[in-house]
Write a structure and sequence with these properties.
Layout: H1 2-17, E1 39-43, E2 55-60, E3 67-75, E4 84-87, E5 96-97, E6 104-105, E7 110-111, E8 119-128, H2 134-139, E9 145-153
Length: 154
């Protein structure tokens, strides 16, 4: 079992480290350079894995335009598990990635609560040029960029 989890983690991390996983990222619809660079989850404790009860933050590269973030998580070892939405949150708000000349950590955080179990998750990160609704984020059709990242919860 540990070997299977290690293999899944390695695959997800290799996908997560790529800005454009094969056939899954979406550049701007106009064909112009995407306004986004890397977006990385950052555990509150500064470790490689988060603990339930910690806050998850997102580090974003410099941006030359306003953008908004949608993020969901799915268990890597259980494809039938329900998607867990981080943004837009229950309040319908998706955090803004402001225009900034350098990388920054967004002020809006996610509290990793009881809806999560320890294990490996695949984060789907979508970037929009407007505040997305949950329905828009679910379809992802109008997203300007799509990234995948691995997140370990223990």
């Amino acid at each position: 079992m540990d070997r299977v989890l290690a293999t899944v983690a390695a695959v997800l991390l290799s996908v997560g480290c790529s800005r454009r996983p094969s056939g899954t990222d979406r550049a701007t619809q106009s064909g112009a350079r995407p306004a986004a660079g890397a977006i990385e989850p950052v555990c509150e404790g500064g470790t490689a894995a988060c603990r339930i009860g910690e806050r998850l933050r997102f580090r974003v590269d410099a941006s030359d335009s306003r953008r908004w973030l949608a993020v969901s998580a799915e268990r890597a070892d259980d494809p039938a598990s329900a998607r867990i939405w981080f943004f837009p949150g229950a309040d319908g708000v998706a955090p803004e990635i402001p225009i900034a000349p350098e990388a920054a950590v967004l002020p809006r955080t996610v509290e990793l609560g009881s809806e999560l179990r320890p294990g490996l998750y695949r984060l789907t990160i979508l970037v929009f040029d407007h505040p997305p609704t949950r329905d828009e984020a679910t379809s992802g059709a109008t997203a300007k960029l799509r990234l995948f990242r691995a997140l370990e919860i223990h």
